[in-house]
Amino acid sequence: MLYTRIRKSPYYYASRRHGVQMYSVYNHTYHPRHYGDPVAEYWHLLNGVTLWDVGVERQIEISGPDAFDFTNLLVVRDLNKCAVEQCKYVFLCLPDGGIINDPVLMRVEENRFLLSLADSDVELWARGVAHNSDFDVTIKEIDLGPVQVQGPKSKDVMVDLFGESILEIPYYYLRRYELDGMNVLVSRTGYTGELGYEIYLHEASRKGEKLWDAVLEAGKPHDLAVIGPCHIRRIEGGILALGADMWYDTNPYEVGMGYDWMVDLEQGSDFIGKEALARIKQEGAKRKLVGVEIGGEPLGAYNDGAMVDFFGVDRDGERIGKVTSACFSPRLEKNIGYAMVPTEHSELGTELEVETPRERTSAVIVEKPFIDPKKETPKQELAGTAGGQD
After folding, report:
1. In 3D, which of 68, 63, 28 has the Cα closest to residue 140?
2. pLDDT above 60 for 1
């Protein structure tokens, strides 16, 4: 028997039935990138409803008497402003302010938190922080596996699965449900900038195929399609990717996420990186992640393998930065992306040159997000509910 060091998600065999054409590895786990035509997947997401295998989002549970204080030490937001059953998009930072991870945090109970991880080993980091500390906490990865149901018709599929009460969940909140003997958490979150939900299945390694089939069955009347992560839509919507647009050497101010509510320097907790981030805010970031429109030939869908290397960015013949994510937007009919450049070259309208794998072409700095800057689409009210704050 052949064993692999790369893990399989709880939905690996179920999602393979739909004809995965390309995989990547994310959190040491096989991750379907697309099923043949990323542009067709993009349009299905915009106009219908889609199902994603996102079991690669490993779930780290922090529990115990000191779970609140310990988790508040790890993240740069003030968790006093996070209610039970609320979700928050958060940064975990190094002492120098670098970004370790940007998970969705879920406060499941007063002293129990879940971190739904991007691609880095946060469990090891959290255990290291807790080692020899006075915090009474338990830190572990749990058998909780998510799928995403995304798109304007996602609400219809979710109502068929869970009933009308699903429409009462505000943006960035969660609720517990039971579905045919399966215990799940349902959150109104996603990686698309579209209306959508994530279903987190308990005992996912044992029950993953059962949940997958249940969602497929509920999706049949709504023409549900199985797709991979839609990077065209996340780039259009201003959503960042750890490992591309930010990493350990990047801080929240450089990626335009230094809002007071996101990096709360006024809170009482001395979270990790607070001193460094206060200094960066005072001195000003030396680099900035900007939106760019890029000329030349269409760049592809990002997750089709077209963007193998980061593109160099030049100004007056000098290499000054790099494009971190880029794609061709079918709606805008142009190449768009993000570029990390020195702050002095980050003004809107600044003209640049970009060297892609195929050509040298022009670029200009523009506003981002490129579409729906106020996130009105995912925050839309359903059943009279008000959208939350991510």
Report:
1. 63
2. no
Angle separating helix axes 154-162 and 204-219, nearest 10 degrees: 120
Burial class of residue 259, CB neighbours in 10 A (0-12, 13-18, 19+)? exposed
Q: pLDDT digits over 210-239, tens only?
A: 999 999 999 999 999 999 999 999 999 999
**SS3 category, 361:** strand
- Supply the mean pLDDT for the chain: 94
Q: What are phi and psi of 126, to 5 degrees?
A: -65, -40
Decide if 276 contacts 254 (C-beta within 8 A): no
Distance CA 319, CA 337 (A): 18
Q: 141: burial class by Cβ within 10 Å (0-12, 13-18, 19+)?
A: middle
Q: How far apart are CA 280 and CA 250, in angstroms?
A: 11
- Residue among 174, 191, 169 nearest 241 (CA): 191
Question: Pairing relation of β-strands 50-53 and 225-226?
Answer: parallel
Rounded to whole angstroms, the Cα distance separating 236 from 370 reads 5
Q: Is the pLDDT of residue 125 over 80?
A: yes
Q: Which residue has the tokens 């989002």?
A: 57
